[in-house]
Amino acid sequence: MKARTAPRPTTAPPIAHTPTKRPLAPPLPRARRASWDVTALLTLLALATLPPPATAGDLAGPELPIAGLPGAALMAAVRQRGDGNTLAVVQGGRGQRLSAAQQGSHNQASLTQDGAANGVDLRQVGNDNEASVLQSGRGNSAVVEQLGDDNGARIEQHGHDAHARLTQIGNGKRATLIQH
Question: Closest Cα to residue 173, out of 158, 152, 156?
């Protein structure tokens, strides 16, 4: 009788390992991806637990809520529609609120809040608009509306209970508002 030998294992050719890039953020749901071209740089430097996002202006479409970490009850809601829109958000402190809506192309905004109970509302409709809001202190509020093209707005508030509203209608407008 012939002795049985175990079948000889076959070795598969080595699989080339190519490193995969991890996405910076989870992809938007398929329905949103099909109808929105969103390019957003969103940085939240705070410990936050976000309530449900608030509406941001009267632009149609889904909101992009900003996720946070457990802590200080910060809120940010963003809507973007168009190509090349950029929004940078930094919130620190407690009880900050922010809503931003961008419609058009190549609009840019930088919104920074520190302190307590400050609020920012931003609405950009048009192309190539730039806006910057910097708030520190307590109970400050800022509203920026840009309706047109190539407008520039800057609000800077330091202290307590300051309120500012900048509305630009038309093209090529520039405005700066500083309160201490």
Answer: 152
